[in-house]
Amino acid sequence: MSAFPDVPQIVYEGPDSKNPLAFRWYNPDEVVEGQTMRDHFRFSVAYWHTFRGTGADPFGPGTMVRPWEDGSDSVDNAIRRARVAFEFMEKLGAPFYAFHDRDLAPEGKSLADTNKNLDAVVRVLKEEQQRTGIQLLWGTANLFANPRYVHGASTSCNADAFAYAAAQVKKCLEVTLELGGSNYVFWGGREGYQNLYNTDMRRELDHMARFMHLAVDYARSIGFHGQFLIEPKPKEPTKHQYDFDAAACINFLRAYDLLDAFKLNLETNHATLAGHTMMHELEYAGMQGALGSIDANTGDLLLGWDTDQFPTDYYLTTQCMLSILKFGGLAPGGVNFDAKVRRESFEPVDLFHAHIGGMDAFARGLKIAAAIRADGELQSLLTKRYASWDEGIGADIEAGKADFQTLERYMLAKGEITPNASGRQEMLENLINRYL
Questions:
Q1: Does the chain have fewer CB atoms within 10 Å around its N or its C terminus?
Q2: What pTM does this model have?
Q3: pLDDT band at 301 (very low <50, low <70, confident <90, very high)
Q4: Alpha-carbon distance values, 391 to 387, 398, 411 (Å)
Q5: Which of 40, 49, 100, 207 is catalytic?
Q6: Is 39 known to be catalytic?
Q7: What is d(CA 427, CA 433) in angstroms, rounded to the nearest whole number?
Q8: Mean pLDDT, residues 388-403
Q9: How many whole angstroms separate alpha carbon 382 and alpha carbon 397?
Q10: DSSP string for residues in 356-416
């Protein structure tokens, strides 16, 4: 029996369509800059928000109407939910999904029971993947929800919490491999501190690095050669998380000799919580060769927390795609909708509306970004702005041919710098507006 009997297969109908259950911009087979939209985006549905979200908030219980749920935390209910998830993704036309281990199956009375529960659901996921062709973009372990991780997981002051987390990640790596996952993500939900008076920061960071080395070593030993990702986030739930932003993560990876194994999974809402734009985070990760994947969402700038809304702003998606195209794309990563429908949008069909809007917004952003790149005007202006570095003293500095003595002689002879040119910020903003 269908969980979505009134929802047809979602198809592309073009920009003039007024059908809310159709794509206006996302045409999976359309080729842009030599790749289909399907391959550019590798769209992924986040299992936790889409199939485990209830609409609960600090002021009230869940509101979501989910007829397939029986209210229990049983394995049978988890299996039924998994089949519903694949019906949803199949109708949507999403080629990938992502999960935390605890999204899939309930914890048991022991670690062995928990693993058994997970295996039962994984068997169903494997069947559904084979039936539909939908693939796993990435897996990750929930190392933040259970009270055992109150002080963190790999950074806990309790060595047993580190050991339990290692056993949990070991199992999740095995499951990710079994399901053919392309990536494995670390999000340090409680890997940080609330108070430095009771925190040995150096020791905690050393432990986190050791944990990640152990994970990489084990993954390679079992034949998992997928991409490892770290997801930056500055705060919430901790006051300060060690994976604060792209720069902090890359510094950590480089300091602990992990940069060869890891790239970053960047999220818009996390970027804004860190005081950055998503474009900033994409540019920083990309220039360091560490852009791996993205969690596509947005936050409400009037609110100070992680609202995980679906992205519908064409300016945002255009900026994202300008950077993603510049750095060669995301594969084997993808665009994962780490986003949830609003508490007030509680009917099952709202899940379709939300994902359609996000997929269309990224498709529109791709087409705009590709047009900007094809015209070349933005790049021409950027090249012109830095022209002084392409010859003369600028080229000598970049080539390592100048020292302070050389530069002093140059300026003593010249007397004053070449006059600065205007940055033309407003003109550039107007230029981008022409494409939207």
A1: N
A2: 0.96
A3: confident
A4: 7, 10, 16
A5: 100
A6: no
A7: 10
A8: 98
A9: 19
A10: HHHHHHHHHHHHHHHHHHHH-HHHHHHHHHTGGGSSHHHHHHHTT---HHHHHHHHHHH-S
